[in-house]
Every structure is written in structure tokens, then in C-alpha cells.
Fold these 3 entries.
Entry 1:
Amino acid sequence: VLIGDKSNMKKPGYYSSGEFARMAHVTLRTIRYYDKQNILKPSYVTDAGARFYTDEDFARLQQILLLKYLGFSLDDIREMTIADSDYHFMLNSLNIQLKLVQDRIEQMQLVEKAIQDTADVIQAEHTIDWSQMLNLIHLTGMEKSLKNQYQNASNISARINLHSLYSQNEQGWFPWIYEQLKIRPGMRILEIGCGDGTLWKDRRSVLPEDIHIVLSDISEGMLRDARRAIGAEDKRFEFHVFDCHRIPYEEGVFDLVIANHVLFYCEDIPKVAREVKRVLKGDGRFICSTYGCRHMMEVSRLVQGFDERIVLSADKLYERFGRENGGNILRQDFCKVEWMSYQDSLVVPDPEPLISYVLSCHGNQSQYILDHYNEFRSYVKKKTDGGFHITKDAGIFICEK
């Protein structure tokens, strides 16, 4: 028996509702409310109805309280948190929350300046600048975008974590990509869809000093993460928000353009390819990565074994631009196109990172998993005992004009 049903005796590491509330400096009513709202359920309930919580529950409560402080609704919080017992994922969660707090600080600094500027104009001219006031209203509403930025960061981190922890190729995807770039002094480089700058942040020390790299993304939040990771003081890097369907540079500017797992998200892939060709120099190269139809196929089989209604992605992205059809799409604009495979697979011995990966996918999985989380975790744990093998079918197209 874990906890005596007919007494107040309990196992060390388990806290009563009252103790749990005092530890977190919240009211017992708050703890009961989160329980009722299915945001934070107790780890153990006795037959008599007494509720007990653990240190893992306390870590989850920390997430909830921070997200609530940052202005998220309880519905948002229910979607954005999930119990993680592994320290890798608690650390990952804290890093994402740190980014969220940094975003809020930057936004509040903008709001502070806008309020001061607006007040100064009113004091000096005794009139109200309504365009300035509208700008102020826009700034104070910016936190609405934080939810999407948080979820994007969470999803990308879950994917990178799974691969970095359990890939069998010791070199790693990003070091392998970097090696294929064949960077030399004096190059001008453009990366479209750079995300949080992972390709560059650990390789700044080996980059030539006389190089210019433009990191671009359609997401201001992602580019902000990249600028933080690399450092705005590194003058070799320029950060630019734009849509890669319309690259705002003249013809023949870049020696190298990179698109790492980007093209299959583009609405008009041939148009992006034409834009890339336009901004490349005559001897420039375009390196774009994607994956084939066998990539991570065991994960789809895994979740459908739990519930056949689950579809991890409404779109099969490799059908839009993948190993099988990407060459034909690119040869419309590039005279030389070669495919290079990245030799790798995953062997996953633990359930949590695989579950985090599953929940990061752009499908319908949450509606079938979150209400049955403990059951799903037990199912995945059985599958990962002894190591769960996952096929990786990814690589790059190397294109020349």
C-alpha cells in the first residue's frame, strides 16, 4: 500500500494538499481548483478521497504559476504543460520558460518607451498623437503572440532533444550539415527559416572573421531566439524577418543559401526556388534538407497502435517536398542537383522524450492522448523497454545554377 487509507501516515516524498499549497505559497482552494480543472491532478488519491502530491507535481505547479503570471488562460496552460519526470525535460521546460520571460521583458521595455514617448509629446505639444496611441495599444497587445512562440519553441525543442539524446550517428545532424556547407573566408551566406539559430550557435569559434551571414525567418519570435543564442554583438551575423517567397536582396548576392527543413512548409516551392536562384552568384550553391517517406515511420505505427484515430501530421510533408520528389522540383531551376543521405537511426530507451516528440507533432494526437496520459505513458514504456528503434531517412539536396 502506497499510503495508508485509514490514517494520515504517508510515504516520504508525498505531500498532503495543505502541505503542497504551503510549499508553493498558494491557497488550498487554488490547488483544489487546478485539480477540478484537470490542470494539476494529485499523484495519489486514497479510497477516502485524501489527495497527495509529489516533487514532480511541484515542478508542474511551478510551470502553471509562471504561465499564469505571464497572462496565459487556464485553457492555454492545460495545453502547454505536461508532466516530465526526466531532468532533461525539466531543464528544457525551464529554458523555454526563460525565453518566454525574456520575450516579456523585451516587450515591456518597448511598452515603457512608447508610454514615455507618448507622454513627452502630449507634454510638449499639448495635443494627443493618435497614431502614437494606436502603436501603444498594439504593443500592449503583443503578449497574444507569446502562446504561439512558446508552443513553437516547445515543439522544436522536443524534436531536437529526441534526436540529440538518442541518435546513433555520433556526429549529429547540425554538425553534419555544417560540414557540407564547405565554408571559406569571404563568403556571403543566407539561411532562410533559420529558427533559433542552432546551426550556428556552437560553431561561431570556427567561422572565418571575414564572413557575412544573414539569418532570416518569417517568425519574429524565432529570430529573437537566434539573436539571443548567437549574440547581437557578433557583427558577422545579420538578422532579418522576411518571407522567403520574396527575398529582399538583389540578384547574385550570396555564395550559399541554406534551407534546413523549410521548403515543405512553403506555399509555393517553385517560387522560393526561383528566388533562391536569383540571389545566388553564378557559382553559388543552394543546400536544402528534407526527409523521405520512411522517416520516423515507427512513431506513427506506435501511436496508431494505441489509438488508430491518431494522425501525427495532417500533411505528409515529404509528399510536398521530400527525398523522392525534391530533385524533380529543384531541377526546374538548377542544372545540377545531387542528393546526399545522412546515415542515422534512433534507439530510444525511455518513454518521456518519445512522448514529448509525439505531442509536438502537428496532428490530432493531443485530443486522444492527454485525457489518457498515464495509460499512454505505460503503453510507450513497454515499447521502449530494451530500446525502441526508429528509422531516420533524411539528407540534403546540393544544387548549383
Entry 2:
Amino acid sequence: MEQNRSDVSLLQLLRRPAFCAESGVITHVNSEASALLLSTGTQVRELIAIGSEEYESFSSGCLYLTLRIAGQDMGACVMPHGDGHIFILEQHEDLAQLQSLALAARELREPLAGMMAAADRLLPAAAREDDPQTKVQAAQMNRRLFQMNRIVGNMSDAVQYVQNGRQRMETVNMVTFLDEVFQQAGELSAKAGVALHYTGLQQDVFTLADRERLERAIYNLLSNAMKACGIGGVIEAKATQRKGIVVISITDNGCGIPDDRLGDVYTRFMRSPSLADSQSGLGLGMVLVRGTAAQHGGVVLIDRPGERGTRVSMSIAVRQEKNAIVRSPVLRVDYAGERDHGLLELADVLPAELYSTDQIN
């Protein structure tokens, strides 16, 4: 009885659609969830569009999966609560927030592109001067421009990831693709003082995938991990396959995410950031990650494998559809403006000397 009152009180405190479930059955819903026609007694498995198997085995951490409610797909964050789970759902306001960020990014793109073009013309000449300080300043400016480019790109594209817009699906050998991404990432992370160890798939796996989105998702996870463990840290990355699913997990040896903040990870762009918190950021990285997982028929799980550190696992379903649209890489418009993707995506954590004009041009 006490647990029931606790569940009701907790749900009513949430301003987002939410419900509690025990033994796979909804036991309590808040008013926002009721407005979506969710009711007690409903079997959770009847609502899950993506992530049924992961939900059945879920016991700790924070799981992001996809529900289908009233004919519409809706992301949900799932966390253990008492003897069951609590589901916190997305809502239309989330999409509106992302659309506002995309509009702001559109206004920023043109002046930023002009700044980067001017830097491409001016900084090489300045760096050729026999002045070490000038070279250092040029590298620092390049790094800041890469950081700005990444931020604006995330602001612009996050809404597309949530809506599954602008997909470029093609048949990809995940062994080759992941080996290439983690090899480049490993070389860059080593220069930042972080050791990245990668264990790849044991045999070829061909699946429909969007290379760009998967790459950006992986780099976002690596950027978060590098920030968490810092110089001297260690990151363990691993790709495994089971029952038609490829799972990419990235584990850092940092201090870990507090339990009371796990539920905010997927939607940090909605919270009120503290100007005093230098680590707050826009929180769009995990929006791109969860959107990528959902697009590829997978889920995201954040948990703590030991006493320290954080593990983030992103799964993708192995798909081989004959009627898929395969797009040639030649026809792609490079989201990084033909710049090095690793240097762009890891600009927040890499040292400035990697952005000297002789290395990026």
C-alpha cells in the first residue's frame, strides 16, 4: 500500500507522460500519460515497438527504447523503480524545442561558414611566419572553429535524427566500418592522453545502415567517455553480435553518472542548464545517439559495469531489405564540409596542437 502511494506521488511530480509497471503490466499512470489514452492493466509488451528483448532482460541502469502509442512511435526512458519500472515518455514539446534549435542553427551557419573560409585563407599564411606563438594561436582558433561547427551541426541535425529524416541507408560491412572508425578514434584519443581499446566483431556482418549517423553517434559516445575519464583514462570499446543484433558498447573508467541523473541523460537539452557548470553543454549528443539507435531498430542502455565508470551500449538490428535505397557515397554532401570527421566530433576533448593549419589542410 505504501509503495502504491509512493508511485502515485512520484508520477504526479513528473511533468512528462509517465507510468509505472510491475511484472510487465502498467500499474499507475500520471495525467499526461492518461491524455495519451494509456491506462492501468495494459501489457507493456503490447506497447513496445523496438526493444522487447532488451526490456525483458533489463535490470539496472537506464534503457531507452521505442513505444508505439495510438499508432505513433514514441521514445521512452525506462528505469528500475521498486519491484518494477518507471517509463518516462517523450512529448511533442521535445520536438518543438529541437525545431527551435534547428532554426537558430540555420541563422548561425552562414556567418560560421564565412569565418571558417576566412580562416582557411588567412591562418596558413600567418602560421608560416617564424613565430611559434602565432602557430599556437592559429591552432587554438582552428580548434574553436571546429567546436562551433560541431555545435551548430548538432543543433541543426538533432530534429532530423528524432524524425528519421534525410536517411541514407546502404549495405555496410560492420566489421570494416567499425574497425575504421575506432582505429582513427584510437589514434586521436591517444594524442589526448586517453587509451582506447577496441574489440571488434569476429565475422563479417552486412546490414543496412546510415554510415554518417552511426559514425557521429559513436564519436559522441567517445567524446562523453573522454570527458568523463580525463587524461590518463581508459576506454574499453567492444562490438558483439547476438540474434540478429549488433551491440556497440563503450565503457569509461570515470566517476560514473549519479543514479538520480540517469533519467536526464537522454533529454538534457530540455533542462535548464547552469551557466556555472562548464560540463553542462546543450545535451544534444545523446539525442543523436538515441535517434540513430531507433532508426536502426535498436535501443540504448546506460549502466555501471562496476564500482566506477559508465557503460553505454547502442544496439542496431541487422537488416537486409531488397528494396532499400542505396545511395552512392559520391552523391553525399559531407556534413563536416570535407573536414576530418574525428577532429570535428572530438574537438571538445582533443588538444589544440592537432588543429595546426598544416594538419587540417
Entry 3:
Amino acid sequence: MSKASNAKETWVAFDLIGTFGLITGAFSIDEHPMYIYAVDGSYIEPQEVEAVVLTNGDRYSVMVKLDKPGDFTMRMASLTMPQMFTGFATLSYRDPKGPSPPSKPSVGYINDIGANTTADVRFFSQAAMKAFPPAPIAQTADQTVKVAMRVAGQSYNWALNETIYPMGLDNDTPLLFDPQPERHNNVTITTKNGTWVDVIFQAVAFPMPPHPIHKHGNKMYLLGQGDGLFKWDSVAEAAKEIPSSFNFVDPPRRDGFTTPAALQGPSWMAIRYHVDNPG
């Protein structure tokens, strides 16, 4: 936590990090709106919100104006049905030149299950986030890779298309040490430096929870998502049929996205990234 102040205003900065694995949570600070100014370590045009939802690996940088001395509850509530729990902390500050604030409970923006307490509570909108400064994106891709996420026998085994990466690391060499870049097995994706690549993630079996997708080495853009199977050969082909499902002007840019849940049927998510960090 750090503070920046002048003669009139005092602000505090927080970094929010989703360090959990199987849950999704909502965070807020009672009676204090947050200005989210960076996501996954990159600046965005600030969004003023009362709450933000965090998934596995998410990172948000926020500024909070300290303008009403007192004790205020900070809430982190699980949104995942198997584990409904809430954690609390306290934001406490005083005006050294003013009287002691009254001791009273603070009023929350969210409740114990992460739902908004009033209709005017604003949650952070990933769809509305804009990179600052603007980050240009290619309008077409040089390569398209489609992967189908499915359960592979046990609840902890997942597969991309038909390939299951072995979980028994005692007997198998991790890809980190044996990348085999020419092995087209759906686990290794081979690309060329300087190109733009589209990856289509499809949840082909249902029900299926959201999957956190993380890209090491550079950022990626969320072009669009939807229900059903991705029946097209490319994003360009899909955009001709369902243009409202895509954003090629200023799509969200970060290193991690969460796929839409497949509750009633399959779902898909399309991301695009520029290959500029060989490795």
C-alpha cells in the first residue's frame, strides 16, 4: 500500500491479485469507489467502479480517494457455488487535525455472496477497458489455431482437442524442458516471429466451468466470444456472419482471459496476439 497526497487530497494505491485456483471472487471497499488504472501490469483508461471480479491470475491496480476518515470493511466474496465464503479486512485512516470519527459499521457495496447491494453499484467492465495509450491491433491474422477443451476421464484431466498432457511429471519431461516445436500435437503450437495469430478456445463438452487462459511473454486481445461451436475456419469468416460479436477497434488487451462457461451448451472465445518474443 502506498499513499500520494497534496494539500487537498489523499489517495491510496492497492494491487489486487487473484492468487486462488478454483474460485472467482468479487472485491470492494465499503463507501469508497475505486479507480482501476492498470490491468495485468499495463495501463488502461481509468474506470471508476465500486467492485471488481477477480479470477485466477488477474491483476488490477486501483487508486482510492481517502475523503471520509473512519474504519471501512474491505470485502472479498467467492462467487463460486462449491465454496461460498467471504474474507474481510479493514481500511482505517484518520484526519490528524480533525475529531475522531464515530464508531459505526460501514455500508457495503456487495454482500457475502458478492452480489451488489444496490442497483447503482458498478462492477469493472472488461469489455469496456481501453489500453492507454491505445494499442494497435492487426485487422487480419496470419494463422488460426482452434482448440477444443474437454474433460479427459477424470475431473482434474483436461485435453486440447484429443491431446492430454501427461500429469505424471515423475515419469515425463515437462514441455518447458522438451518443447518439441515441430510436434503438432495440440499441446505445442508452432508460430513464426512477426506474425499475428488467432487462437479459438472452444468448450465442446458441457456443463463446463470457465477456464483461465494465460499467455506468457506478451499480451493478447479478446476479439469476441459466444455460445455454440465455432463453425468457421477463421475469425474473418465469422465476423462476416456475426459482426456484432467482435471488436477489432479497441478490444480488451491483457495476458489472461477467462473463457465463458459452458452451462447449457458449447461456448467459444477468440483471442489474437502478435508473435514478437521468440522462445
